[in-house]
Amino acid sequence: MNSYRCTRPVSLAGAESLGNLLRYLLLGRGMLTSNVAEALAFVRSGTGLPAPDIELIFAPAFFMEHGAANPAGHGFSLGVALLRPESRGSITLASGDPLTAPLIQPGYFSADADMGTLLVGLKAARQIAHAPAFDAYRGAEVWPGQGEQNDTALAAFVRAHFQTLYHPVGSCKMGDDLCAVVDNQLRVHGVTGLRVADASIMPTIIGGHPQAATLMIAERAAAFVLGRSTPPPIHFTDLEETNGVTHAAVSRDA
Ligand SMILES: Cc1cc2nc3c(=O)[nH]c(=O)nc-3n(C[C@H](O)[C@H](O)[C@H](O)COP(=O)(O)OP(=O)(O)OC[C@H]3O[C@@H](n4cnc5c(N)ncnc54)[C@H](O)[C@@H]3O)c2cc1C
After folding, report:
1. Which atom of ligand 1 is nearest to the CA of 200?
2. Is pLDDT of 253 > 80?
3. Which of 64, 111, 187, 200 is most exposed, with the fewest beta carbons within 10 Å of its own?
4. Pocket around ligand 1: residues whose beta carbon is below 6 Å from it?
């Protein structure tokens, strides 16, 4: 996370007011319509990569320690997310009691390459924040902080303060190898009549946010259960835009 104080009162710091709540409820407008992560960029950390491996997320707000350690006042942030981490975590049973929580070890930065990629992203975020377009808004750098410049200091900062983007996948991966839990129709290997249909079956994380891909897994699972090779098509009709939001009638073939 690369965060700055904002020298003008234009961030979401004042979003949670009664006025904004009423504006949102009555008019569907105002700061509370923001999804906070208002601009995204998918970029390559080096030339020759077949696809972006870093996501930069711009927010007109501080977002420190999941928002729990935000300083007072206006700020803006550029988050850096690894899209194709090499680190692998694990999830194992703590006991034979199904009500006991499992042991989850995310394994963040267990692969050295991930830190190098993240630092490329952090430097890119700083470069963007120092573009002339931000001159009128950019105050002091709060995170990592102006003193944190060399790679050793930046890596120490990242290890101390990185945050998850809440996208765990792949604990129950699809495939035919010894580590695979489900086959390519989501049936659990060796168990009859049981399928898994969620983000856990992704063999590797997708290069984006997983919600849409998870919904597609669910669509495919429904089709498999019904004995279809593909889900029935969805039709969007009567497209209409109100206050910048597109509405549509959705129907699907039987
Ligand atoms: C804070 C947050 C923000 C996110 N933002 C985004 C985003 O902006 N874009 C994006 O693409 N992805 C986002 N994600 C990730 C996305 O939500 C997940 O990848 C996705 O929901 C995974 O779907 P799933 O079906 O695998 O699991 P889930 O959506 O977690 O569904 C699991 C379901 O199982 C139910 N359940 C659990 N235990 C039991 C039980 N014992 N019995 C019955 N039911 C049970 C749960 O209640 C839940 O409904 C976000 C995640 C979080 C946590």
Report:
1. 26
2. no
3. 111
4. 166-167, 198-199, 209-211, 214
Considering the entire predicted model, what is its pTM? Answer: 0.87
User: In the chain, what are the domains?
Assistant: 2-161 (3.30.560.10), 167-254 (3.50.50.60)
* Residue 187 half-sphere exposure toward CB, CA atoms < 13 A: 8
Going by C-beta distance under 8 Å and a sequence separation of 6 or more, which residues neighbour residue 110? 87, 88, 89
Residue 163 to residue 111: CA distance in whole angstroms: 17
Q: With residue 113 as reference, give the H or E element that holds it.
A: helix 112-129
Residues 6+ apart with CB under 8 A from 183: 174, 175, 176, 189
- Residue ranges of alpha helices (H) inside 78-197 are 112-129, 151-161
151-206 per-position pLDDT tens digit: 999 999 999 999 999 999 999 999 999 989 999 999 999 999 999 999 999 999 99
Instruction: State which of 169, 211, 217, 220 you would mutate to test the pocket of ligand 1, scoring each by most atoms of that ligand within 8 A of its C-beta.
Output: 211
Q: What is the DSSP letter of 178?
A: T
Q: What is the pLDDT of residue 30?
A: 94
Nearest ligand 1 atom to alpha carbon 208: 11
Res. 211 pLDDT band, cuts 50 70 90: very high
- The pLDDT confidence band at residue 246, using thresholds 50, 70 and 90, is confident
Per the structure block, which two tokens stand in for 4?
Answer: 């700055």
230: pLDDT confidence band, cut at 50, 70 and 90? Answer: confident
